[in-house]
């Protein structure tokens, strides 16, 4: 079942170092003691060319903020995003333009991500138009081609998004994202809003496109079974930090971080005998507020292994096995 | 059950072509956006009727005054306060040709008319019997008396018998009648339409350009830009319009110019607020984020994504502001702050008509009808446009 990496190529496409994105939530009295929501708080990540990197985590852990910062919808507070020899984190909007076409995004909600006032032809042609590729006629031809690629047909070009089902809309969003032959496609919960049967279709199509076009995916989701199916490597995020990152099989077979174990334990089990067994890895409590973060290790408030060391010192992301990095004092 | 083996010869197999598979999808022909808008607009009967009315009004306002010898300032006191429809009476003297006439029951004057309703002139009374409250007119050997001892006044012959009328006639000389100074109401009405439509046009343009631009900028950039811009809007919005027009009149003399400037400089704030509110909610939509990831410029995002999606509320606001601008102008003219005499606007016509409301209620009918019908038409048109421009309402 589990997928093998398409390429054994270890070339890093995007290198992220200590990336931070803080939002100011209150200015305080006359600007004193402003409070910050640390949505992304020091993420190190390498995205390799041709791979699918899954990113999982609870709601509010900063997955989407990370995605939107990587694609520079948000300006990072601090850190480095190395891509094609440039540091995207430092570039001004106008200097970003040449890199824009190489990173594209597929959005979660196919109803909100397509402008209802534009027909399908204009929606898919828009990235081409902005990049100044071709004339009107050749763009239309390209749109027809892309529609075939994503399993629609060219008669759909004059229609409006509201005339399509959710799955078809997501296909339109995918056609738009791949129109410019990007190197990296960020799928931000791209299938979460779809029916399960449609999810499988769309995921299979994404895999086919990856093979054909040599795409690299950053696949963000909270659906652990889907991420297992599609990813080569999986990163686990908790409160704005990466706590574990490992190849697909390694993470599922040998999770090292207590949070990862808790996440995996939360997958419903179809076997009632297995399900009834008391599971020690189950988490307690709620995710702490990203405005008032716990000291030391962020997970210690909910961690069954927590000690004084965890409160005093924040664990670093260390490589424990081949390609398997974990941020926990007690991981072995 | 026996197995049935059917062998289909190889040459009978052929791949299904894609078009056939999708035939069920291609139920309706694909239309472009504007074809679609036109179709939906056409189907909306009230909106189309309103559009026809507005076009007719515009054409009449531009060309109407050129087609008649009446002017808005020509007075003829002999023919004042003539109604548009009157009852015609006939008298047949034996020694002269038949006479047609009508009695203006408001001022007890008798007018000579042609049989079709054309007004030929005022008839002078031979004698006035103030004791009996009668005016006596003589046509050849026939005598006609206007008896106003009892109201409404009636027309009687020499023996005191009421004269039978030959029916109602439409005033052929002045279709809408004349006012208290004998000026043609229809022509004055058309000049009034010019003024009202000018005001509507100016209000619409100013609203659209300043309001949409200002609100769009404030909403899109948000933060401190928004704060400063919206405080300015609030300051402008707090100045009472009437006071503003009066102050303007001190500077510009002309009432009309003051009204235009006042409406132009104040009316866009509502539009700015609505556009800003829309922008604030729309700019966080995913499709705007998608456009940004493609590297779309701010201008492109505003003009291709945000403004088209704001079009519905903009049009609705616009079509509500146009009639209210027309109304403000009429109101200002009504209370005497509008155009100066002898120029006419619907407001001044209404004001003049109110003075003679008891005697000649018909004078109020036409300007009032013009104001209300125009406001109705703009409202219906706005609703129709909003529905037509929204592809989500396509059936």
Automatic annotation (TrEMBL), chain A:
Keywords (A to Z) from UniProt: ATP-binding, Nucleotide-binding, Transport
Record's subcellular location: Cell inner membrane
Metal-binding in keyword set: no
NCBIfam families for the chain: oligo_HPY
Molecular function GO labels: ATP binding
Residue ranges of domain ABC transporter in the record: 14-264
Signal peptide: none
PANTHER family: D,D-DIPEPTIDE TRANSPORT ATP-BINDING PROTEIN DDPF-RELATED, TRANSPORT ATP-BINDING PROTEIN
SUPFAM superfamilies, A to Z: P-loop containing nucleoside triphosphate hydrolases
Descriptive protein name: ATP-binding cassette domain-containing protein
Chief site of localization: membrane
UniProt-listed InterPro entries: AAA+_ATPase, ABC_transp_ATP-bind, ABC_transporter-like_ATP-bd, ABC_transporter-like_CS, Oligopep_ABC_C, P-loop_NTPase
Record's bilayer topology term: Peripheral membrane protein
Family: Belongs to the ABC transporter superfamily.
TrEMBL record, chain B:
Subcellular compartments: Cell membrane
Cited InterPro entries: BP-dependent_transpt_permease (IPR050366), MetI-like (IPR000515), MetI-like_sf (IPR035906), OppC_N (IPR025966)
Pfam families linked: BPD_transp_1, OppC_N
Keyword match RNA-binding: no
Membrane-spanning residues: 47-68, 197-221, 241-269, 314-344, 364-385
Membrane topology designation: Multi-pass membrane protein
Domain ABC transmembrane type-1: 193-382
UniProt keyword terms in alphabetical order: Cell membrane, Membrane, Transmembrane, Transmembrane helix, Transport
Family: Belongs to the binding-protein-dependent transport system permease family.
Record-given protein name: ABC transporter permease
Organism per entry: Maritalea mediterranea
Source taxonomy: Bacteria, Pseudomonadati, Pseudomonadota, Alphaproteobacteria, Hyphomicrobiales
